[in-house]
Design brief:
The complex is a heterodimer of chains A (352) and B (412).
Chain A lengths: L2 E6 L2 E6 L4 H7 L23 E4 L6 E2 L10 E3 L3 H17 L14 H9 L22 E3 L9 H9 L5 E4 L6 E4 L15 H5 L5 E3 L12 E6 L8 E7 L2 E7 L12 H5 L14 E4 L2 E4 L2 H19 L6 E3 L5 H15 L4 E3 L4
Parallel strand pairs in A: 1-5, 15-16
Antiparallel strand pairs in A: 1-2, 3-4, 3-5, 6-9, 7-8, 10-11, 11-12, 13-14
Helix pairs in contact in A: 2-3
Chain B lengths: L16 H6 L4 H7 L3 H11 L11 H6 L10 E6 L9 H7 L1 H15 L3 E6 L4 H16 L15 E6 L9 H8 L23 E5 H5 L1 H13 L2 E2 L2 E2 L1 E8 L5 E6 L2 E2 H8 L9 E5 L8 E2 L6 E2 L1 H6 L8 E6 L4 H15 L5 H18 L5 H14 L6 H16 L1 H8 L1
Parallel strand pairs in B: 1-2, 1-4, 2-3, 7-13
Antiparallel strand pairs in B: 5-6, 7-8, 9-12, 10-11, 10-13
Helix pairs in contact in B: 2-6, 2-10, 3-6, 3-10, 5-6, 13-14, 13-16, 14-15, 14-16, 15-16, 16-17
Classes of the chains: A alpha+beta (352), B alpha/beta (412).
The structure holds flavin mononucleotide and iron/sulfur cluster (3 copies).
Chain lengths: 352, 412
């Protein structure tokens, strides 16, 4: 790739070609607010808040979609740019119901961040809110279109990343809004509840039902872990408050999932805190289950397996691996069957 | 007058192939097919023909941006959406002289190497769509369109595609989305249609009047075209004059004809001998001119110099009794309704402008409201995804700035 140099806000920057002005600025610590841009859904050019001025080009340019070129001179905070950004945030604040006090999105909301950085407490434009009924039809996702900023991120996520093709933008003008299928309630649509859209939403328009009122983002610890459900091994963050998991999000910067999760990984964490969950091994004694220690359980199992092997031969034993464990666990299980038990009777539930 | 586009005006049944041929039709196509395609492009560049759909981009230059390779699929699209309020020029050509457009398209397609063409016509023009479909059938039956045109192995067929009533589908990339079966929302540019157009293929989009000028240029040469108009603004324009004039209608005059002459001589002056208040010179999106600003030549460059645009050449004449806040109210309603909704300044901005102007017009506004309208217009300009938001803001801003007194008298 060719080296180029450009000037942003008087700072000479050396970089390589095929990058956007936004990314070059960010890499060099220059703050440009964005709303519709997300590294995973890429440029959209919808919100227009990332505008910059480029010497020799007319009007304002959206930096998320502007390729950095050699010799370019870019300004990111002239009076005109700041005035335009302020207008955009005020337009959002007047057209949507952005009541941060009780919003689930508060703390992770990118509109809130932009308003904060631009020093806007309230909009000077008239109140244009529409009072759209909140869609609570999905078992997991709450859709409050009064908080939607029409950024298209959920649409790009649902169509291009998760490829479930549920969401699209419906209607036009100020009535434009995200629709599920042919404008059905989410719970009656073809949504498979993967939650891709929720994770991408920059505001509180899409939130998780189960996490509601359980804790703000700044009150939770984030623990990175591997999803316990299948061998893909998606990387995820557990959002934990008072030793309770209140939300799960996909880790965006790592393979294999780069932020995506399926319905189980994202929403199926209740079992962790279930009272019916086994907390220690159970051994049947006189027809009744009784709790025993791990040592006792393992000793008992080893003894029984050896007995069966001795009396009936290794071929009488079969090992079935579990899709809910990792590749490494399955590998060890296979080794155990072949080397310790001495059989090739190894199978896996994902194959049956 | 009536030199290039309406030269056959008045001929009965001109829409029939027989009549069109009897009056010299399809001669240009014959000539064009005997020329190398590059020569036609050079001819059109030489003529200086600029797009008649509003932006005035040089047509031949646009064709040059297309890849040269013959084997790459390319499309030619005629923009017949004609949605701009106060604009009714393209229908004159399509309804009365459809073969002129078909001939222009077929020559253009040959020049750029397009295999397939579409005429994207506004939904409301259903009877004109029928005229076009009939003319296309006739042209195909007689070898002027379709396969083996004029006995050569050159093929080009045209489909008529009807819009569904949205103004924004006149914007060339929204138009492409619409033909592809998607919602009519403009694409982020670049890439431009010349590299990534219909179904991702190189595409040229051109207005009806632009394409209909091609047969004249091929028949008579670029120099003949340049005898009309003035440097950088050659040829003629179809001026659609409406509003408070005695003889509203579509008139063909050279580029650079005086606006005063068009209103007072061509269109017979103001109705009821009233005074003139203002003129919107190029469709509703063109910034308004005050009565004392009409001593101006109607061409792309002169109007830009005067702080407006030639746009579509649709001239809306407003007499002394018209309330400009009322005009602004209508314009704001139109823009707010027609915004595709994709980008924030246009979607929310036009909606609030409409709200504020309604409030001012109802006598419930304040000076702050006027300031807010101006602030919105100032910020919307230059920050939108397509030109619609820009022009909406420019047009409303000019009304408020030039007739501020009228707005202020409503809030006091
Ligand atoms: C909001 C909007 C509406 C437009 N409507 C039309 C239209 O109805 N007809 C047209 O020819 N061009 C229209 N245009 C201009 C087209 O985008 C495009 O520039 C034109 O079709 C190119 O053809 P030309 O170079 O021959 O003018 C519109 C542009 C915008 C931004
Ligand atoms: S949860 Fe998944 S399938 Fe459902 S709308 Fe969101 S992204 Fe699409
Ligand atoms: S719901 Fe969220 S992600 Fe989707 S468009 Fe609205 S603000 Fe953007
Ligand atoms: S300027 Fe208006 S019409 Fe154009 S893309 Fe933006 S919202 Fe749509």
């Amino acid at each position: 790739m060719k080296n180029i140099s450009l000037n942003i806000d008087g700072k000479n920057i050396k970089t390589v070609e095929r990058k956007t002005v936004l990314n070059v600025a960010r890499e060099n610590g220059i703050y440009i607010p964005t709303l519709c841009y997300h590294p995973r859904t890429k440029q959209a050019g919808k919100c227009r808040i990332c505008v910059v001025e480029v010497k020799g080009l007319p009007g304002l340019r959206v930096s998320c979609s502007l390729e950095a070129k050699d010799g370019m001179e870019v300004l990111t905070n002239t009076g005109r740019i700041i005035e335009t950004r302020k207008m955009i945030v005020e337009l959002y604040l007047s057209s949507g119901r952005h009541n941060c006090i009780s919003c689930e999105g508060s703390g992770t909301c990118e509109l809130q961040d932009a308003a904060y950085h631009l020093g806007i407490e309230k909009s000077s434009f008239p109140n244009m809110t529409k009072d759209i009924p909140i869609d609570t039809s999905s078992p997991m996702i709450i859709r409050d279109m009064n908080k939607c900023i029409q950024c298209y991120r959920c649409i790009a996520g649902c169509n291009d990343i998760a490829v479930n093709e549920v969401l699209d933008m419906g209607f036009r003008s100020s009535r434009m809004t995200v629709v599920c299928d042919t404008n059905k309630p989410m719970g009656k649509s073809s949504c498979v509840i993967c939650g891709e859209c929720v994770q991408l939403c920059p505001t509180g328009a899409l939130t998780e039902r189960k996490s509601a009122t359980k804790g703000r983002d700044w009150e939770t610890g984030k623990i990175k872990t591997t999803c316990p459900y299948c061998g893909v091994g998606c990387q995820m963050y557990l959002h934990v408050r008072d030793n309770e998991i209140i939300k799960v999000t996909g880790a965006e910067d790592t393979a294999p999932n780069y932020g995506s999760l399926c319905i189980k990984g994202r929403f199926g964490y209740d079992f962790v805190h279930s009272h019916e969950r086994l907390r220690s091994p159970l051994l049947r004694k006189n027809g009744e289950f009784a709790e025993v220690s791990w040592e006792d359980a393992l000793d008992f199992t080893a003894k029984k397996l050896l007995e069966i092997k001795k009396n009936h031969g290794p071929e009488s034993i079969v090992g079935i691996g579990c899709a809910r464990t990792t590749n490494e666990n399955n590998y060890v299980m296979m080794k155990f069957m072949r080397a310790v038990i001495g059989t090739n009777n190894v199978d896996h539930c994902a194959r049956t | 007058m009536n030199n290039i586009l309406l030269s056959k005006k008045g001929i009965i049944d001109l829409h029939s192939l027989k009549k069109y041929i009897a009056h010299g039709g399809y001669e240009a196509l014959k000539k064009a097919l005997s020329m190398p395609p590059e020569n036609i492009i050079s001819m059109v560049i030489e003529s200086g023909l600029r797009g008649r759909g509003g932006a005035g981009f040089p047509a031949g230059m646009k064709w040059k941006f297309l890849p040269k390779e013959r084997e790459i699929t390319k499309y030619l699209i005629c923009n017949a959406d004609e949605g701009e309020p106060g604009t009714f020029k393209d229908r004159q050509i399509m309804e009365f002289d459809p073969h002129l457009l078909i001939e222009g398209m077929t020559i253009t397609a040959y020049a750029i190497g397009a295999c397939r063409g579409f005429i994207y016509i506004r939904g409301e023009y259903d009877w004109i769509a029928k005229v076009l479909i009939r003319a296309l059938k006739e042209a195909e039956d007689h070898g002027f369109s379709g396969d083996y045109i004029l006995g050569t192995d050159y093929q080009f067929c045209i489909d008529v595609f009807r819009g569904a009533g949205s103004y924004i589908c006149g914007e060339e990339t929204a138009l492409l989305e619409s033909i592809e079966g998607k919602a009519g929302r403009p694409r982020l540019k670049p890439p431009f249609p010349a590299t990534f157009g219909l179904y991702g293929k190189p595409t040229v989009v051109q207005n009806v009047a632009t394409l209909s000028s091609i047969p004249f240029i091929v028949n008579n040469g670029p120099d003949a075209f340049k005898t009309f108009g003035k440097p950088r603004n050659y040829g003629t324009m179809l001026f659609g004059i409406c509003g408070h004039v005695n003889k509203p209608g579509v008139y063909e005059y050279p580029m650079g004809t005086s606006l005063k002459k068009l209103i007072y001589e061509v269109a017979g002056g103001i109705k009821g001998n009233k005074g003139l208040k203002a003129v919107i010179p190029g469709g509703l999106s063109a910034p308004i001119l005050k009565a004392d600003e009409i001593d101006i030549e109607m061409d792309f460059d002169s109007l830009i110099a005067a702080g407006s645009i030639l746009g579509t050449g649709g001239i809306i004449v407003l007499d002394e009794n018209v309330s400009i806040p009322f005009v602004a109210q209508k314009a704001a309603k139109f823009f707010a309704h027609e915004s595709c909704g994709q980008c924030t300044p246009c979607r929310e901005g036009t909606n609030i402008i409409k709200f504020l102007i309604d409030r001012i017009a109802a006598g419930e506004g304040s000076l702050t409201d006027i300031e807010q309208v101006l602030r919105l217009c100032r910020c919307i300009k230059g920050s939108t995804l397509c030109a619609m938001g820009d022009t909406a803001a420019f047009s409303i801003e000019t009304m408020v700035k030039k007739f501020r007194g009228e707005f202020e008298s409503l809030v006091k």
